[in-house]
Amino acid sequence: MALPHLGLIVPPAAGAVPVDGPLLYGERIRFSALGLGLGEISTRGYTEVIDSVVEKAVALKARGAVAVSLMGTSLSFFRGAAFNRQLEVEMARATGLPCTTMSNAIVGALRQLGVRRVAVATAYIDEVNAHLRRYLEQSDFEPLALEGLAISDVQAVGRVPTQVLIELCLRVFDAQPGADGILISCGGLVTLDAVREVEARLQLPVVSSSPAGFWDLVRTAGLDARSPGQGRLFAEA
Fold first, then answer.
1. Overall CATH class of domain 105-208
2. What's the CA gap between 207 and 149, in Å, rounded?
3. Residue 113: phi, psi to the nearest 5?
4. What is the spatial distance between Cα 151 and Cα 140, in angstroms, rounded to a whole number?
5. Full-model pTM
6. What is the 3-state secondary structure (H, E, C) of 202-218?
7. Which of 94, 83, 8 lies closest to 47, judged by CA?
8. Which Pfam families does the entry link to (predicted)?
9. pLDDT tens per residue, range 31-86
């Protein structure tokens, strides 16, 4: 029996499948990816590639994908919630497939875990953080403290150490009391270890872009998105 084949549109030109997919779903699901060639993590960088998202979705359908996600959080939230919804609609219309975005994923995951007041840790520069705050507010969340690592280099985000992410999460949680959970935003960050550690320390749910992106795409395809031992989101039925 053939494995379900899910398609990813990713920011880096190389089009590699992010490491979280195989870690979460092992031999259960086949993922393939096409890259956009994002030059930098900024509004200027997003504007240069956003118009090619739909054609990448069509190409993934031609490769046999049965559902597609734009796996770049800031790529889908930088123009706001209405633009994110329209992008999803255009991808689905062009492919005839269930389609989603990483911005849908973080919203869906936060809601699944009962988080509304959220402390936010990101990889981003201030300009992108401002877009994220607006998107979260438009999606009926209350972002409390929000701090980024001021990274605009597409490759550099994947090299951020786990301990740096843990410390950033703890810092934003402490900065303004009352958060129901933590959001780590940027699909290029490698975060599964940090998610488990921060959840254990704070006894609160943590949503991170890349893991949530896979969770959301698997659900969009109508498949079981659970993955035991990978944090609260993946323990949910």
1. alpha beta
2. 17
3. -95, 5
4. 27
5. 0.98
6. HCCCEEEHHHHHHHHHH
7. 83
8. Amdase
9. 999 999 999 999 999 999 999 999 999 999 999 999 999 999 999 999 999 999 99
